[in-house]
Design brief:
With 269 residues, this protein is an alpha+beta fold. The chain has helices spanning 4-18, 33-39, 112-120, 134-140, 147-152, 162-171, 185-205, and strands at 24-26, 46-50, 53-57, 63-67, 73-78, 88-93, 97-102, 106-110, 251-255, 258-262. The chain binds a DNA duplex (13 and 13 nucleotides) through residues 1-3, 6, 52, 67-73, 87, 89, 102-106, 152, 154, 161-165, 208, 229, 236-237, 256-259.
DNA sequence: AGCTCATGGCGAG
DNA sequence: TCGCCCTGAGCTG
């Protein structure tokens, strides 16, 4: 679920339901009981995202910092909240809506300064309008690390996860093992602007689609496909299947403890 | 019932 | 680079 587009969407969804609302806040699971007690009956003033980090604002009381990690989930419901399951770390509720957070890596009440420190250690986020790719380029263009690892490094660029990494490299025909410093400036500019577009569409649709209109199964006269993570993609989790463009076998490898996917023909060294 | 795997990230060594 | 933390779906038996 959670790459940056998911978290930005969650920020929007929180604002739509809870901004300006006085909330009942609880931690049925118990691991956030102290924070919940301080926040109960307070007003949510705003919600924002930076990369994969979600910040729920409660005025002078502080911020709830949420990071879903690999397993975390946030589910919204309408109406009065039902009795919570034991795994719910944080429940926010009004008489007409509720949100349940389960399995996050982080759920903590933090101060403005602590929040600022988190922003400071994150790279630019394609989904934050004031961020720009220049800072990321400075790191990438000096680095011997592979571009595949750099794209996953949240200090370099915030919000890109394993799906967007694989897909954006495919869309630009870039071998994932190329060193950052071997990328050209124009290649990087195209990657950055493409990420802005792809991730904005991800926020709108709440899923990742990366296949260009001319490469959809309909456009290519092939049977419809359903990728098992809910979106339409070129290479992610398609190991040993045929590339939609050239028919070669999609490859997979471990890179920094994550599964990397690429087409050796479309993304030649 | 138990295993494996997943769109993350941290700290130890 | 490894092990670990968080949860749930989809297998296997």
């Amino acid at each position: 679920m959670p790459e940056g587009h998911t978290i930005h969407r969650l920020a929007l969804d929180h604002r739509a339901r809870f901004e300006g609302e006085r909330l009942r806040v609880s931690s049925p699971q118990g691991k956030f009981s102290d924070g919940a007690a301080l926040l109960d009956r307070q007003v949510m003033t705003t919600a924002e995202a930076h990369g994969k980090h979600l910040f729920l604002g409660f005025g002078g009381t502080g911020w709830v910092h949420v990071h879903l990690g690999l397993f975390g989930k946030l589910d919204f419901g309408a109406g009065a909240a039902p009795p919570p399951a034991e795994t719910v770390r944080l429940r926010l509720a009004t008489p007409t809506a509720y949100a349940d957070l389960r399995g996050p890596t982080t759920c903590a009440l933090i101060t403005d300064e602590e929040k600022r420190a988190i922003h400071d250690r994150l790279g630019p986020d394609p989904l934050r309008p004031d961020d720009d790719g220049e800072r990321a380029w400075k790191r990438i263009s000096r680095s011997r690390t592979t571009v595949a690892a750099l794209l996953m490094d949240q200090k370099v660029i915030a919000g890109v996860g394993n799906v967007y990494r694989a897909e954006v490299l495919f869309r630009h025909g870039i071998d994932p093992y190329r060193a950052g410093r071997d990328l050209t400036r124009s290649e990087w500019d195209l990657i950055w602007s493409d990420l802005i577009e792809l991730m904005r569409e991800g926020v709108r649709n709440n899923r990742i689609d990366t296949v260009r209109p001319e490469h959809t199964p309909e456009a290519m006269g092939r049977p419809p496909r359903v990728d098992d993570h809910g979106g339409e993609v070129y290479v992610y989790r398609r190991a040993r299947q045929a590339c939609h463009i050239c028919g070669d076998e999609i490859r997979t490898a471990d890179l920094a403890a994550r599964n990397l996917f690429w087409c050796p023909t479309c993304q030649r060294p």
